[in-house]
Amino acid sequence: MDTLRFITCGSVDDGKSTLIGRLLYETKLIFEDQLEALKADSRKFGTQGERLDFALLVDGLQAEREQGITIDVAYRFFATPRRRFIVADTPGHEQYTRNMATGASTAAAAVLLIDARKGVLTQTKRHSRIVSMLGIRHVALAVNKMDLVGWSEPVFDEIELAYRRFAEDLSFHTITTIPLSALEGHNIAEPGHTVMPWYEGTSLLQWLETVPTVDRDSARPFTMPVQWVNRPNLDFRGFSGRIASGSVKPGDPVRISPSGVATRIKEIVVWGDPNTEATTGQSVTLVLEDQVDTSRGDVIAAASHPVESADQFEADLFWMSEHALLPGRPYTALVHTKSANVVITHIKHRLDINTGAHLAAKTLALNEIATVNVSFDKLVPFASYLENKRLGAFIVIDKLTNETVGAGIIHFALRRSVNVHWQALEVTKAARAEMKHQWARCLWFTGLSGSGKSTIANLLEKRLHTDGKHTYILDGDNIRHGLNRDLGFTEADRVENIRRVAEVARLLVDAGLIVIVAFISPYRAERQFARNLFAPGEFLEVFVDTPLEECERRDAKGLYAKARRGELKNFTGIDSDYEPPQSAEIHLRTTGIAPESCVDQIIKVLRD
Amino acid sequence: MPNVISWELESEAIEIIREVAATAVKPVMLYSIGKDSSVMLRLAEKAFYPGPIPFPLMHIDTGWKFREMIAFRDQTARRVGFKLITYTNPRGALEGIGPITHGSAYHTDVMKTEALKQALDLHGFDVAFGGARRDEEKSRAKERIFSFRAPGHRWEPKAQRPELWNLYNTRINAGETIRVFPLSNWTEADIWQYIRQENIPIVPLYFAAKRRVVMRYGQWIMVDDDRLPLEPGEAPQIRMVRFRTLGCYPLTAAIESSALTIDEIVAETLGATTSERQGRIIDHDGAGSMERKKQEGYF
Question: Pairing with B63, which of A149, A297, A518, B39 sits 20 to 30 Å away (CA)?
Fold first, then answer.
């Protein structure tokens, strides 16, 4: 018996939870004690008067029951003699769309509910686009609450027409429209001929029993990301993972990406079932003929169809965080089993949820979808999501909070990364620095406006210059007059500001200089990005730690006063956050200390 | 080809278990001795075969487990050869806290929830496996497979991390932990069919036998030792009973049954008209009681 994973989605109050409750009830999946609890709950929280409120069967969180809404996706299980079902009941509120996407990502089919009285809404369209983007190809449009429109055929026809017109540019293979009433149970399990004699199609359950389950990808060439290396002792070395596509048997020639090394399958190790053929979806451990250097994140594939690797891609991205996506900001990404640093280099366009139009965008807000260019810091074995979901899907993780903030699907690799090679230079950084009798360094000053960064940086440069060192200062205000004069003070522009300065600092360090960067640089993620550009020990973070009250009291440039009057937006410390360093190499507590002493402190660290 | 009913579930669970081994700093598997733990243990053996399970198993002992459960636990640890950690809340043991004297809610809070948090903190485990399934209870149906816990082991049901595809975000900051549920998508029937198919040893209490029980609040409570005081008029009887679920003995009710074999249990489970948690007295402590316990750090 096969299993169908599907979701119910649609706008708020379209009756998704009621529908699932009804499905469970009609397929006899509700136990007596649960029915007793339901009766009690219906009296306490129910919205259906004396009748059973089936939504209470699935809305499991207290907050959901009290508010009568669905917040998070619930998974329920039922079966008919023909099939086993895992249904994800997803929330309709726009605020919780990411929970809807969670349910949709593992589903093979979608039941999209529409309230017959309301027709196709924005949220119906948003869910449709996400369902389409995630690769679900079969959709049932369940026009619910037909009882409230007098079982009217014209109402149903109009909704069907409107939806089909909207869905023309989506990637669905089939759309089946079914008029029903979850509350009264018509066209759920049994056809609703008595009330809707004009409808000759299937009931919802009949559709669920016959819609194709997920394409197993077993006919495609073999691929398996390495999840874990099994090395219990010196005599055994196996590569564990779940087969993403195709099948494999001992003796098969394989090639490993990204290294390109070729070998053969020696043995498939599965407890109690050795050496047989293994297929898509199975978790196995592969032993290879040769001792090859392979680790988590690599992909083992059929030698005839090796998996491509790249570090720059075009992708669709769904944003799931209240904090906007900022191009240029470093995030962590997980593609199958490969973890890497990732930057969104460019938002090509944002999608208008209603019309599908392409809009220009500098950032991406919660629940928005865009086509973007992404750049990884290492080569990633991949496939396009359309070809191979497991090798083409990725999530984006915030480096500071570790929240999952984005979900992406890879379209294709951008050739740029392959074609632009680094120019190998024969005179090295070390050689240049040696001629100047110094070590090249980047001293990165961070702190609030008015904390004393520029003052201390200037004193430090004078001292180093006297000692015969070759130095250069990159100062926030000065750079903003030239290189970065096109940038403002929004979060996105601040990120780009730092990215450019960090790259310039790297070039100067490469030239053998001691570079002093004096920028507010309020966000940890960007300072970490800057740090990552340098060799270990080359980058020293200097935290100029002056309390906000003290900076505001000094207010050398009069900026705090302006910000307080509301004349200056996005001012760090006032209406924009400053994230203090957690482990700066040098921590200058400036209160009551002369700038000269701060310089001494830095010189001492440099000498060590 | 393995059995069609469960190989997908099996492969999914193995993938989840391996993902933890590949990414966690110090993982542990919570072992409650019941049927779900027995299945989870077998899946861990399979995930790392031919190597050993690369993390310890931990049992939170409330002091009120059925005697047969403890015997089975120690025997299983010897047979499979995993590292077993047991932990009992020292404060609760000192104060003699139990379900009869202190009530089921307080007993569970102190001896299970508080004890679990103490044990995780004591050993510094960052990831803990649990055998919970989404079909057991409504708030569990809402939980992620990788369930993120804030400092203090709190679950924030309204702010769960999105969990797309099989891409599990295992990144945490200091003080945060993750509970991982490899059996999330299994049903009670799947568990029994898998036990039958794999010949997995389980505690004998799951099979029907003549046992000493009393009828209390309409349910059969087993008189496992002399710590169960009898109410006036209560008299232990010998009944043919078995357990669908196992917990602390005064808090877990038996059902009348004649199922002596796994086949008979499977047949009985598929035809059941009540849910398995009906026998769990702690779940009835009030609406949303499981959700509240989970927020406080219970599994």
Answer: B39
